[in-house]
Amino acid sequence: MHPIIRKLAVGAALVLSAPFAAATVLTFDDIIGPDGIAAMPVTYGGLDWSNAGMSVYTYEQAPFTAHSGQGRVTTDWTDNWPVASTIRFLSPTMFDGAWFSGYADSIVRFDLYFGGELVARSASLQLSEVPMYLDAGWNRAIDTIVVASDFPASYVMDDFSFSGVAQVPEPGSVALMLAGLGIAGLARRRR
Questions:
Q1: How far apart are the C-alpha atoms of 5 and 182, rounded to whole Å?
Q2: What does R_g of the chain's alpha carbons equal in angstroms?
Q3: pLDDT band at 17 (very low <50, low <70, confident <90, very high)
Q4: Residue 18: pLDDT above 50?
């Protein structure tokens, strides 16, 4: 393969894959309330938290150990057991996972949805005072996450991680890009 064409191909691959490379990690450290407790904003980090029923803690309290910084979220006290907190993405997104700590007699898991249908369920994580990572276990786009737990306010979640999903280009756009690369390669070769 000609070196110029190889460079163009590598450059095109990097440009097309760039949207997948950037991950977002929500630390919740910038949400500060009186006495170290704040209501979770309805929109935070580009997500819809309106049905999550969560609060943000920024003070130290065992067994709710933060993974990083001080901010972490937990469910509010409720009479409904088990607890399910719904978090919605504003566009299809790749969800990586989050860090959890809490009471050792409780578990958490993720239920992942796309278009209103359950597409995957993570493993269940037995909690402890030491923060542990719960991987989503799914490498495709979703639009909703339900954090499920057996008891209210039994866990804290920290360092919530996700990546944007690039829109698939239309075939005409790809054809135009390839034609442009071909013309540039021919013009370069003629010189």
A1: 8
A2: 22
A3: very low
A4: no
Q: Long-range contacts for 129-133 (Cβ within 8 Å, ≥24 apart)?
A: 129/62, 129/63, 129/65, 129/101, 129/102, 129/104, 130/65, 130/101, 131/65, 131/66, 131/67, 131/99, 131/100, 131/101, 131/158, 132/99, 132/100, 132/101, 133/97, 133/98, 133/99, 133/100
* Structure tokens, 62: 């065992």
Return the SS3 of 52: coil
Residue 27 is classified by DSSP as: -
Tokens matching residue 43: 């929109």
User: Between the CA of residue 56 and those of 30, 49, 112, 179, what are the distances in Å?
Assistant: 10, 12, 23, 52
> Tokens in use for 78?
């409720």
**Which tokens hold the place of 79?**
């009479």
Provide the angle, in degrees to the nearest 10, between the axes of the packed helices 171-190 and 3-21: 150
Question: Is 6 a residue whose pLDDT tops 60?
Answer: no
Q: 72 in helix, strand or coil?
A: strand
Bridge partners of 38?
A: 56
Report the alpha-carbon angle 83-108-97, nearest 5.
120
Closest CA to 27 of 63, 57, 50, 52: 57
